[in-house]
Amino acid sequence: MKNLRVAVAQMDCILGDKDKNLETIERLARTVARRSPDLVCFPELATTGYSLNERWDDLAERIPGKSSDFLSDIARKFNFALVCGIVERDSEKHNRIYDSAVIYDRNGMLIGSYRKVHLWAEERKYFTPGNSFTVFKTDKFHTIGVGICYDLEFPESSRSMALQGAQLVLFPSAEMKPMENHIETYLKSRSAENCIFTAFSNRIGKEGETVFFGQSQIVSPSCKALAKVAKKAEGFAVADLDFSLLEKERCSTLPYLSQRVPSAYCLSQSEENE
């Protein structure tokens, strides 16, 4: 099975300034393109910044739209698949907004989009939650899953995608202090318990009292950080993922998926209350 070179971006954003943020994304894309990645992931809400509250509604866009078209052009121009967080507006009929991520192939074609399922704190006031986890084919070799930030903290998110065949799950994020140690643990746990690679693209910078801590990284099923942005600064972590190892690991070292006992698990809140 063909290897995949993956890069996760670490960047700051200018709150509410889509043009400047898209310029930053393009500049970073041009830099990382020198390392010939197959797939690049940018953070949650990278086109707008995070702490917008009511302004999320003002800056939301439909897909396709100005920002998503720009991201499509970046993928095509630099010849890599791209995942990036945006604020999505639903159809005219519903006019709901979502904390979403778009996924493009290296030709700039939209593979799909994901709407964040687990909304955190103030997000619940403004966003509509997504209702499912799915997987995407970046090419004929690789199957990926996408969660967003808080989704990482729920084991069911990654497990759902792993059971659908995801070999890699990416988490564009805006994780903030004091969650540094938690996130390190979650990334290793999700990788090991599902025998997948996980990739975490996080914000840096400060918005009001909110401090984003970075630590963008790519983690293997053996809980190793294959690449990590060492400083709390703009940059990339890049790693070559050998997916041929996954089947071997799943059959011997980490056979969790094949040795599950679903009949013994409480699978829904209604079952839990019975």
Supply database-style keywords:
274 residues; alpha/beta; Nitrilase/N-carbamoyl-D-aminoacid amidohydrolase; 6-stranded mixed beta sheet
Q: What can you see in these coordinates?
A:
- This protein has 274 residues and is an alpha/beta fold.
- The protein has a single domain (4-273), classed as Carbon-nitrogen hydrolase (Nitrilase/N-carbamoyl-D-aminoacid amidohydrolase, 4-Layer Sandwich).
- The protein contains eight helices and 14 strands.
- The protein has helices at 18-32, 55-59, 66-78, 123-126, 155-163, 180-194, 244-251, 269-273, and strands spanning 4-10, 39-41, 81-89, 97-104, 110-115, 135-137, 143-146, 168-173, 197-202, 204-207, 210-213, 217-219, 225-228, 235-241.
- The strands form three sheets. It has a six-stranded mixed beta sheet. Strands 6-7-8-9-12-13 form a six-stranded mixed beta sheet, with helices on one face. Strands 10-11 form a two-stranded antiparallel ribbon.
- Helix 1 (18-32) packs parallel to helix 3 (66-78).
- The model has no long low-confidence stretch (mean pLDDT 94).
